[in-house]
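Researcher: I'd like a structural prediction for the single chain below. Treat it as a standalone chain; there are no partners to consider.
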Amino acid sequence: MFIRPLPLPFFRSAPARAAARSRTATRTRTRLAGALTAAALTLPLVGAVGVTGAGAASAQSVDPAFAADLHALEASEPFGAHVTDALNGINGPIGAPGPPAPVDTSVPCQPTPAHPRPVILVHGTFDNGPNTFPRLGAPLQQQGFCVIAPTFGAYVGNPGRGGLDSIVGTSAPQLATVIDHVRAQTGADKVDLVGYSQGAAIAGYTTKMLRSDAVARIVSVGGYWGADNSGMVPADLPAEAAGVGLWAVNLRGLAELAPFSPMVAAWKGVEGSPYAPGVEYTILASRGDTVMPPEFSFVPGPGARTVVVEDACGGGAMDHSGIAGDQRTHALMAGALGGVGGC
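Model: Treating it as a single chain, here is the predicted structure.
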């Protein structure tokens, strides 16, 4: 159960109020950091969120004060409806979703001399590989690329709903295993990755932290790269709800991308960069994407090229779902991977 700070007395001076707010913010960030660090280490957080039993399946089993924060997430955009589904049990019992689903590691193709590196798609939150392939894989396949589209971060109780489990504890190790398997099956020295939305963070984290010697290029489509501390959830939500609340309703990948996330801090490291030396990055974004606008996606650094799609190719801006299916995105993506590009 969280202990909330008492309201500041009205008679304090302005500097005193500012100092108190700063201390409160620091305590909140510290509390969230501790909870997310425990999450990253896959330690149980059931006690931290007040769940009364491992089989609890509704918000009613959560401490009432914390349940209010959980339900505050339901009013947020763009994840509110998904939080409602999670509270209703779609991701398994609150705080106890069950084990990760296994990943299909089949490799249905072989790279060619024209495109010698296999391309692994990394889908976004609530999505899966088969749904992502028609939008981002098929345009590459038509150019002769060998494209693999697994599902990462799903729970065994709902294996078609990926991008939910911990990036640190599940999705990144799964992607690392797929990279190893694809290289072994195809004989390729390295692979390329295309990450959409949360999938870009999974691809980036996995590459830098686990497989920097096995990835040549990454293309990010509407992805998060830690451009600021706001994370992938609205900044006006209480930090507890944004971080621990998302973890409690089994949206663990989003929880690790919440404000002041230790996962993002570890990913960026002491050098403050999410990029691995020697890897080429192309970061595609649109100003019409209110989930992952350029200011969330664009982080300067060696080997990174940032592109606003409508600036490069003309035409109108796109929303978060539209950018993945747009022909301009496909052209820029293919060009970045060594295929036929241009708008």
